[in-house]
């Protein structure tokens, strides 16, 4: 008997601040190429001495994770599964600079210790004393979706009852400068929102978004995670068939989907994928979110948070709706689609519960 | 009798003891290690450390892979492509599109070997730009998937030195759940100045040949390697008339939740991982005939792992060895190359020795196997532990 998977808690640290009830009404579209997250006070969660040694990614991850656990009223989950595209980039850069600038002399281990990709998941486990399964996926824009797939499989097969799953990526100076050189990030002198974007590249931002996924439905459950699919390569011509096959294996047709949450990031060369995707469906509300929280490899985790909130509240705030279609029926099935530069495609299906 | 498990139908490997299964097996049986002074990485630590380095330059690797001029394959990606291709070729010509096929790879350094070379030069030299996007850990997996022609579920795991064990575990679960029919799983890591200096700051590198499980062990030798396994569903095995090399019957991952880089004294994480793997395989500790230990030869690991083994097996410790003295510690690839060694051990009914061992650890009541020996092997267990308290165990069973 396959078990269900409910989202019972959400936490986030983003360029618009932390996850909260008024998140969308208090948000402003980003128009800078590189955006830091608005950092909350970490004092209650992390001692100041430890916080000084930790990169923002670790702190953001710990904060978002705790928010997600608190909302679900879970102390220690059975498993912790994270995704990160670039990992602990700040500490990696710091250690590498020390090697290069000091010709391999006078090195200290802290930055190296914290540079491994699984540091965030490990630090959360250490803090909670969680001895369960602990995985970190690192595959560009499907890093979070890989973690979500893993968590879903474990809940479905009753290998765990409560799982903490999340995505986190931090800004680091040099790496982001290099990503500007290759055009992934817009140049610093371009100030466009996704809505106004007329250029290649995206506005980037750091973020951490975590979820408590549980077998049990509670009074606080946002929605159910129905299915996830990942695909490294796809042609635009095959996108419709890829989507149709995914819907069919879930007993659905395009007409059963009530809203779309899409990964538009303002990169004029690749946002066309989402235009094609929208055409697969009849006229339904289309939602975006990266204009608020920016692009990073794991920002698509925020699509899940966005959709979960919409399903629970049954309202679509104007700031995240991309088209003009009015919601004329209950939001039951919401489909999420994300890709990055035409690769690492993911579909996530959420359902009201 | 273990559960049916997931069939392993192909294996491929490249490490400092060989670029083929035959070369690796020959080295293991003749007790020939692959530890030497480093040649391919420019580092000041050159004369202070011994490493398990693959003696092919990047140009030679690119030639072996027939990569076009102007390619942007990092060393990590090239080693991965080489070993993964060998694993798939072992199937004897197969159409990657014929079944739902995926790739679960793993790496810890990713493209760091090029990042550390061009970190500042990138800003000045646009000709180097193609390497900028090879820095992230997912790059090598994309390259391997493209090289093999895999389109589908492709992802990467990075949990430091247990990475490949976790990739193998996830692959097996994807087959069991029916989401995939076939999956290529494993890991790849190239030596880099970054990891050499990182491990040096932790003071866990020895300036001699490493001595796993020896009372006087001084630390580890780093190495580089890649290895991949092809896992296939029972349905594919039947339809393609495969003869499985072995079965993956058990797997478990747990967290030590003790320290970011050090293992707990009682080996709690390792103990939990082994216990989970035994439960998944539905085996008792007494069913395990051989343990391929993580055995990095650091004072901390071998004590922690030794205690965990003692807790699992009590007075009935099976034969065990660490093969790290042959290859060095190959980080994210370690569990994959050791998975290949376990498959070979099951196929040949042979245990590979723990080199450089002299004195039994005073905290333990057992010593590793130091000579090649014939043994009746049905189930073997392989351990891999990483930073962040990450502990993984895999159980392989005779086909």
From TrEMBL, chain A:
UniProt domain Beta-ketoacyl synthase-like N-terminal: residue ranges: 43-217
Record has Transferase as a keyword: yes
InterPro entries with a match to the protein in the record: Beta-ketoacyl_synthase, Ketoacyl_synth_N, Thiolase-like
One Gene Ontology cellular component: cytosol
Keyword Transport found: no
Listed GO biological process terms: fatty acid biosynthetic process
Gene3D superfamilies: 3.40.47.10
UniProt KW keywords: Transferase
GO molecular function, one term: 3-oxoacyl-[acyl-carrier-protein] synthase activity
A Pfam cross-reference name: ketoacyl-synt
Protein name as annotated: 3-oxoacyl-(Acyl-carrier-protein) synthase-like protein
Organism from which the protein derives: Sphingobacterium deserti
TrEMBL record, chain B:
Record PROSITE patterns: KS3_1, KS3_2
GO biological process terms, semicolon-separated: fatty acid biosynthetic process
Database matches in Pfam families: ketoacyl-synt, Ketoacyl-synt_C
Keyword annotations from UniProtKB, A to Z: Transferase
Ketosynthase family 3 (KS3) domain location: 3-398
SMART domains found in the cross-reference section: PKS_KS
Keyword Transferase: yes
GO molecular function, one term: 3-oxoacyl-[acyl-carrier-protein] synthase activity
CC terms in the record's Gene Ontology section: cytosol
Family membership: Belongs to the thiolase-like superfamily. Beta-ketoacyl-ACP synthases family.
Protein name as catalogued: Beta-ketoacyl synthase
Organism: Sphingobacterium deserti
């Amino acid at each position: 008997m396959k078990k269900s998977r409910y989202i019972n808690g959400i936490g986030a640290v983003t360029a618009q601040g932390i996850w909260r009830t008024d998140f969308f009404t208090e948000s402003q579209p980003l128009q800078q190429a590189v955006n830091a997250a608005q950092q909350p006070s970490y004092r209650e969660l992390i001692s100041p001495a430890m916080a000084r040694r930790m990169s923002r990614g670790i702190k953001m991850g710990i904060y978002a994770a705790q928010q997600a656990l608190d909302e679900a009223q879970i102390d220690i989950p059975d498993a912790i599964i994270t995704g990160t595209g670039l990992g602990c980039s700040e500490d990696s850069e710091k250690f590498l600079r020390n090697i290069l600038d000091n010709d391999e002399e006078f090195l200290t281990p802290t930055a190296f210790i914290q540079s491994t990709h699984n540091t965030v998941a490990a630090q959360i486990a250490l803090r909670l004393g969680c001895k369960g399964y602990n995985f970190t996926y690192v595959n560009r824009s499907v890093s979070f979706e890989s973690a979500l797939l893993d968590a879903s499989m474990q809940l479905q097969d009753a290998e765990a009852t409560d799982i903490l799953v999340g995505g986190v990526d931090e800004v680091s100076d040099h790496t982001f400068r290099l990503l500007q050189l290759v055009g992934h990030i817009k140049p610093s002198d371009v100030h466009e929102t996704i809505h106004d974007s007329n250029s290649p590249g995206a506005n980037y931002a750091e973020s951490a978004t975590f979820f408590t996924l549980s077998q049990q439905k509670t009074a606080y459950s946002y929605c159910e995670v129905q299915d996830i699919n990942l695909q490294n390569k796809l042609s635009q011509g095959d996108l419709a068939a890829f989507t149709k096959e995914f819907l069919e294996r879930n007993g659905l047709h395009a007409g059963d989907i009530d809203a779309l949450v899409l990964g538009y990031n303002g990169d004029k060369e690749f946002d066309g994928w989402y235009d094609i995707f929208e055409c697969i469906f009849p006229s339904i509300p289309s939602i975006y979110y990266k204009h608020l929280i920016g692009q990073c490899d794991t920002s698509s985790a925020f699509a899940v948070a966005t959709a979960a909130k919409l399903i629970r509240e049954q309202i679509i705030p104007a700031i995240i709706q991309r088209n003009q279609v009015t919601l004329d029926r209950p939001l039951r099935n919401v489909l999420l689609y994300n890709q990055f530069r035409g690769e690492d495609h993911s579909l996530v299906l959420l359902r009201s519960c | 009798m273990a559960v049916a498990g997931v069939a392993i139908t192909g294996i491929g490997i490249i490490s400092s003891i060989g670029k083929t299964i035959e070369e690796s097996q020959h080295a293991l049986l003749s007790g020939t290690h692959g530890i030497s002074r480093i040649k391919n990485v420019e580092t000041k630590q050159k004369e202070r450390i011994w490493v398990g380095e693959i003696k092919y330059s990047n140009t030679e690797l690119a030639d072996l892979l027939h990569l076009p001029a102007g390619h942007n394959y990092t060393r990590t990606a090239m080693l991965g492509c080489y070993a993964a291709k060998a694993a798939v070729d072992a199937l004897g010509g197969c159409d990657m599109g014929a079944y739902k096929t995926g790739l679960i790879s793993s790496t810890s350094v990713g493209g760091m070997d090029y990042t550390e070379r061009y970190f500042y030069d990138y800003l000045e030299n646009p000709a180097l730009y193609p390497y900028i996007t090879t820095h992230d850990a997912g790059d090598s997996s994309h390259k391997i998937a493209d090289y093999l022609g895999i389109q589908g579920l492709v992802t990467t795991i990075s949990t430091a030195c247990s990475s490949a064990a976790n990739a193998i575990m996830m692959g097996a679960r994807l087959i069991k759940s029916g989401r995939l029919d076939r999956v290529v799983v494993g890991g790849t890591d190239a030596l880099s100045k970054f990891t050499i200096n990182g491990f040096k700051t932790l003071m866990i590198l020895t300036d001699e040949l490493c001595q796993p499980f020896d009372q006087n062990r001084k630390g580890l030798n780093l190495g580089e390697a890649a290895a991949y396994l092809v896992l296939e569903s029972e349905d594919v095995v039947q339809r393609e008339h495969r003869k499985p090399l072995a079965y993956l019957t058990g797997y478990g991952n747990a967290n030590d939740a003790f320290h970011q880089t050090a293992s707990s004294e009682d080996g709690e994480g390792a103990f939990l991982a082994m216990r989970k793997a035994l439960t998944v395989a539905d085996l008792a500790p007494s069913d395990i005939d051989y343990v391929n230990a993580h055995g990095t030869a650091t004072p901390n690991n071998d004590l922690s792992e030794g205690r965990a083994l003692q807790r699992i097996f009590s007075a009935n410790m099976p034969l065990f060895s660490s093969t790290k003295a042959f290859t060095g510690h190959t980080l994210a690839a370690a569990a994959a190359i050791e998975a290949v060694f376990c498959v070979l051990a099951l196929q040949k009914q042979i245990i590979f020795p723990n080199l450089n061992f002299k004195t039994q650890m005073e905290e333990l009541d057992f010593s590793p196997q130091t000579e090649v020996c014939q043994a009746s092997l049905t189930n073997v267990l392989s351990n891999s532990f990483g930073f962040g308290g990450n502990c993984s165990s895999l159980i392989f069973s005779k086909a």
